[in-house]
């Protein structure tokens, strides 16, 4: 079922062998350097000879890479580690140079090793990848020998046709080829060497999956099937153009359907790659998710899904929530089953041992072990990834290094870890300023938190100097190319929209809108559902919102289309479309800061939180 042209897969395997064999002069030297069990079947890490019944399969996995080829900046590039004494430690992590080294090191001594991902490898990417429609990231994934991935919601940011190009190759239909090859000819993008799986995404007209629904990894008689799905709610969090002509189906029903198909084909060992996740009780990556009992330390959509997926599936690799966890959640038969997620941006990878029984062709569930590992920046960089970054960086440099503004300190956004972030306030203010330049009657601006992809960091990332915000850094924060739209909403609609932050599809995982200066209210998290928004506390410039009055509201085109579960915001009237949100942000930074008068981090005090 592989979607990969057969002539390309052997080349990848040769790359892996070369990576393992680097620095060894002969095949004999390589054999001598491997553990005694290498090349043989071995349960639990101990060899029982080549005729033993079980063999350990190493499953390496990660998720939500989002084109972060270079180490993410600020808190977006850190993981939190729980120490033996109960204290917590922040560790700088991530970057494809280190991820490649980590995975290659982990594979050594493991002859049965497969690498998988759970979606959002591309989309919402920093400029180094996003400027080139994520071709650099696909190339990097090829080099680090990714075997298979599910699609995520962000794989649909540019639509199904562009996703197909990521799989099959070819130059961009509008921007063409980005590099020159021999003789100055255009260098064609080759596409992914690994299959993208989209079992629950079908074409509305044909009813068939737009990509392969599953793929089977085979090695020396061992077979493991992979089923890939994204969250059913993808249309709610992706622009309408990105999912036009597509249908997204129930995750549980889809996985169960294809698990039966694999089972009938004799594939009894099955892993699901699902771009949906959960929220652990602790943000430390090494938190015990099974304390006090199996799966007790996690909540969210993945728990319901895991409990509904057929016992034929032996493990779930998940994503989407950007959290880290290793849990055993009971399957429908009540038996514990491994469910993992490796944070985001390549900061962690998960190493799972699947003990394969050659007689039953199934995984011995009681022997499954899993752990998340930090992609440390203290290890050596992978030279081929350094070369890749350098090559693309030269193409991006003229755009990326332009200064657009100045700040006096870190302005946390994605990594703030609180409902209202300083960067959220700054972006909302920028969008209101842009809206007022179009219509002086604009009253307020709202910004969806998921559209803020990083932090603004005071420390220089290159040669620009401390406090300088470059175009590349601003792009990393807002990479979606949404427009800033103006609409009329009644006060009643505005209140309903704010309540949708914590109700409906957002009740389980609230999406707290970032608000421009002048809009204030109280969010009471001790209550449930829509009651969390204290309606009589909502004020604009100190005056209570009048349900019957009309307000001119700025928001990005994604929110104006009702995205992220904000259906009421999609009902605005008298729409006016402004410039793209990145331009609005950059213009605001340029107009309101200088080297002598940098912007100070906003106080983030517009929403009062009651816990």
From TrEMBL:
Pfam families from the UniProt entry: 5_nucleotid_C, Metallophos
Signal peptide positions on this chain: 1-38
Domain of life the protein comes from: Bacteria
Record InterPro entries: 5'-Nucleotdase_C (IPR008334), 5'-Nucleotdase_C_sf (IPR036907), 5_nucleotidase/apyrase (IPR006179), Calcineurin-like_PHP (IPR004843), Metallo-depent_PP-like (IPR029052), TAT_signal (IPR006311)
Keyword Protein biosynthesis applies: no
Residue span of region Disordered: 66-90
GO biological process, one term: nucleotide catabolic process
Record-annotated 5'-Nucleotidase C-terminal domain positions: 414-567
Domain named Calcineurin-like phosphoesterase: residues: 62-323
GO molecular function: 5'-nucleotidase activity; nucleotide binding; UDP-sugar diphosphatase activity
PROSITE patterns xref list: TAT
Assigned keywords, A-Z: Hydrolase, Nucleotide-binding, Signal
Alphabetized SUPFAM superfamilies for the sequence: 5'-nucleotidase (syn. UDP-sugar hydrolase), C-terminal domain, Metallo-dependent phosphatases
GO CC terms, sorted: outer membrane-bounded periplasmic space
Keyword Ribonucleoprotein: no
Gene3D superfamilies: 3.60.21.10, 5'-Nucleotidase, C-terminal domain (3.90.780.10)
PANTHER family found in the cross-reference section: 5'-NUCLEOTIDASE (PTHR11575:SF24), 5'-NUCLEOTIDASE-RELATED (PTHR11575)
Family indicated by similarity: Belongs to the 5'-nucleotidase family.
Protein name (record): Bifunctional metallophosphatase/5'-nucleotidase
Highest classification ranks of the organism: Bacteria, Bacillati, Actinomycetota, Actinomycetes, Kitasatosporales
């Amino acid at each position: 079922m592989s979607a990969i042209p057969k002539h390309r897969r052997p080349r990848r395997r040769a790359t892996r062998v070369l990576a393992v064999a680097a620095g060894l002069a002969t095949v004999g030297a390589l054999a001598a350097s491997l553990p005694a069990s290498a090349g043989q079947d071995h349960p639990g890490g101990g060899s029982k000879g080549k005729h033993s019944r079980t063999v350990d399969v190493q499953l390496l996995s990660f998720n939500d890479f989002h084109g972060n080829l270079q180490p993410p900046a600020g808190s977006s590039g850190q993981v939190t580690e729980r120490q033996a004494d109960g204290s917590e430690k922040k560790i700088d992590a991530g970057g494809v140079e280190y991820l490649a080294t980590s995975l290659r090191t982990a594979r050594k001594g493991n002859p049965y090793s497969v690498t998988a991902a759970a979606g959002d490898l591309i989309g919402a990417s920093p400029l180094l990848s996003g400027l080139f429609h994520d071709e650099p990231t696909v190339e990097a994934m090829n080099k680090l020998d990714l075997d298979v991935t599910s699609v995520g919601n962000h794989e649909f940011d540019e639509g199904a046709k562009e996703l197909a190009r990521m799989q099959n190759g070819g130059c961009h239909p509008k921007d063409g080829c980005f590099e020159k090859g021999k003789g100055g000819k255009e260098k064609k993008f080759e596409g992914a060497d690994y299959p993208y799986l989209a079992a629950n995404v079908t074409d509305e007209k044909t009813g068939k999956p737009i990509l392969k629904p599953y793929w089977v990894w085979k090695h020396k008689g061992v077979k493991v099937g992979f089923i890939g799905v994204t969250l059913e709610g993808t249309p709610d969090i992706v622009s309408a153009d990105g999912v036009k002509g597509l249908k997204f189906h129930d995750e549980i029903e889809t996985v169960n359907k294809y698990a039966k198909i694999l089972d009938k084909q004799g594939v009894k060992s099955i892993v699901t790659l699902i771009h949906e996740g959960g929220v652990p009780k602790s943000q430390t990556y090494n938190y015990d998710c099974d304390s006090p009992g199996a799966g007790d330390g996690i909540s969210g959509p993945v728990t319901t899904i895991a409990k509904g997926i057929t016992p034929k599936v032996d493990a779930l690799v998940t994503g989407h929530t950007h959290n880290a966890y290793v849990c055993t959640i009971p399957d429908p038969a009540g038996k514990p089953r491994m469910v993992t997620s490796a944070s985001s941006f390549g900061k962690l990878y998960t190493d799972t041992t699947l003990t394969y029984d050659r007689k039953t062709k199934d995984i011995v569930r009681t022997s499954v072990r899993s752990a998340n590992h930090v992609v440390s920046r203290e290890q050596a960089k992978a030279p081929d990834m350094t070369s890749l970054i350098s090559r693309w960086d030269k193409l991006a440099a003229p755009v990326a290094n332009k200064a657009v503004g100045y700040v006096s300190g870190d302005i946390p956004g994605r990594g703030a870890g609180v409902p209202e972030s300083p960067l959220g306030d700054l972006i909302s203010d920028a969008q209101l300023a842009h809206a007022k330049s179009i219509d002086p009657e604009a009253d307020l601006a709202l910004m969806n938190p998921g559209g803020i992809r990083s932090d603004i960091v005071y420390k220089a990332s290159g040669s620009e100097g401390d406090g300088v915000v470059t175009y590349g850094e601003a792009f990393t924060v807002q990479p979606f190319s949404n427009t800033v739209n103006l609409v009329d909403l009644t006060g009643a609609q505005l209140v309903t929209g704010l309540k949708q932050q914590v109700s409906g599809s957002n009740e389980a995982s609230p999406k707290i809108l970032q608000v421009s200066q002048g809009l204030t209210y109280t969010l009471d998290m001790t209550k449930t559902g829509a009651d969390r928004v204290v309606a009589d506390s909502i004020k604009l410039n100190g005056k209570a919102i009048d349900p019957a009055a009309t307000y001119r509201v700025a928001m990005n085109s994604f929110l104006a289309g009702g995205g992220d579960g904000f259906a009421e915001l999609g009902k605005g009237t008298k729409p006016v479309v402004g410039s793209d949100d990145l331009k609005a942000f950059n213009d605001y930074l340029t107009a309101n800061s200088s080297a002598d008068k940098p912007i100070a981090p906003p106080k983030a005090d517009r929403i009062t939180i009651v816990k």
